[in-house]
Amino acid sequence: MRVYDFGCVPGVMVWLYTLTILLGSCLLFLVQPLCAKMLLPLLGGTPAVWNTCMVFFQAGLLAGYAYAHILPARLGVGRHAIFHLGLLIAAYFLLPIRLPDEVRAGWHPVLFLLVSLLLSVGLPFVLLAAGAPLVQRWFVLRFQNAPRDPYFLYAASNFGSFLALGLFPFVLEPYWSLGEQSEIWAYAFLVMTALLAFCVPMRQAAPTAAPSTSDASDSPTWKARGRWIALALIPSSLLLSVTTHLTTDVASIPLLWLIPMAIYLLTFTLAFSQRHLAPHEILTRFLPLVVIVLLVVLASEATEPMPLVMALHLAGFFWLALTCHGELARTRPPASHLTDFYLCLALGGVLGGSLNALIAPLLFPGLYEYPAMIVLACVFAQQNGLRATRQDWFWALGIGAATAGVILVLRAGDVHQLDSNRVNLAVIAAALVVCYLVHQQHARFALCIAAVVVASSLDPGIHGATAYRERSYFGIHRVTKIDGFHRLVHGSTVHGQQSLDPERRHLPLTYYSHEGPIGDVFRLYKDDPRLNRVGVVGLGTGSVAAYAQPGQTWTFLEIDPTVKRIAENPKLFTYLKDAQGTIRIEIGDARLQLRKPGNTFGLLIVDAFGSDAIPMHLLTREALAVYLDRLTPGGVLAFHISNGYVNLESVLANLAADTDPPCVALVRRHRANADEKKFGIMNSDWLVIAQKREDVRPLLDSPAWRPAQPRPELPVWTDDRSNLFQVFRWRGPE
Tell me, which fold does domain 1-204 have in CATH? Predict the structure, then answer.
């Protein structure tokens, strides 16, 4: 290959390096959702599986950055480039990505997962992770006389990830199966390898300019590295915090996570691009105001008007992330130390993600990492650092004690809950305004904000007194006492409630009432021997167990042990304790649990689709085959499909029509009136599937039930191909 000694960088070479790094980052980002979809039917959706998966890819990312930082120095750039290209060619022969069809007997699922990922995508993933810092390093070595900052390529790298974020759900998933996607990925990997070969600095340009004041031999200090790690950690943690808060506390909208992720990648791109959206000084100057507004919105626990609340959280996240990433760009080292810099950024990102996904659920009962990261942004995003004086600490202690004192007095006094909440919010808002008055004294402002955040945790909130709270890897579960009910809440989604009135506590409420569709099923099939064995996917409060009769055996399949503890606690809910039949609870992914011998049912209820995280592996052709196989002759499936944002009726109707012979699918939508809502009954939609019309004859004869409407233009969902966008209700709940 002929290599030219450029005194400056030709435009074609800029495009070559940009395209190479963009394609590599795009492929790197696509690996994770591709593997996740392959693994879900095989191993289920338990935390052990997904935490292991996350740790594997984060470890692979760190390994790639460490490889790019260490090996070129040990081998020399030329020899390492040849070695790297050889590894890429070897990795290509491991493609396309293929994962085993079943877990090998005798293997622990976590060990099996690690070995499968390591053998299938381990080497390609690490090499792709190393690509971004290596390409930038090669750019510097090849064009030493170029005045252009190589960090513009880092913006291209993040833009590649941004493209992948849209490619997977909008382009790849709707039109190609997993096998086809894997083949496309393999061909793109080969193209990226070829492009990379043209980026190798086979001969370096001789430097003509004098060395800059930032000499390449001056390694970054450990203090600088620590600050880089912190500035990368904060937006990474905020990304997950904002996503969790929006999808649970504001609106349970599937695919909402795409927006914060897009913002996160966009801020990286903007911060390291040649043209900035706003001067960094403007970002830091208005940071205190953004922090105040964001904390007031958090303290109010506002969910309405939903578009405004979401916009405030997303705008606040955008400002905080752009400020942190802008400070990273401002303090970046000379190009000779860019691999060191990127290793620190990768470590910070991994630590931020691990804090939210692995550590916070064990340490915090609530989403405390969200306000904590806002406080840390005040500390690390300021250009001059923070040095607190004794007076700064006195200010913080004073304002924190005053805020906490007022909240505690209101909690102890005989004040109506609504009035107390309003006063508490006013007190917190006033304290934050006082903090803003000292925002030009950065240390004092940050400490005062931290003190108010700690004090505001004493506020009971707007959802009523919390009778119980526990956080698991699936989210934050709260049992609130409000309006004469105990209510199980996961974010903004109610997963069941029970009346505290002894005369009414035996009644199933919310989506399981006698007046609703599932009440029809138990009334019309009363004394039917098929109900002697009932299976339920999803436990909630155990409300549906109120229909159990003596001699019946009910088996609940629940993935979250926390939900089991809550439902079995008689101080919170008594549906399971008062049930007349035999109640069994099995913990694990429902699809895997159903494969166990002995789990056969006359009625199988599937109630797992109420939140933002739709377990799509429970809605595929293969999943329906498992359900039907677990039914006794004449058995019936009942699906709870109340979801304001996803049209699950068409998904299940298509699946029913796809069987041979086609199954019967009926649906009923119940809209609770004002009196029913007063007694804890909610709107609910249910769909039943049976193999023969005779199996659902009582429902066919009922005018409340109608045939489910399939959508033939949509492909039937399978483990290999499914897409949520095709059935998304863009106008929101009906």
Answer: Growth Hormone; Chain: A; (1.20.1250)
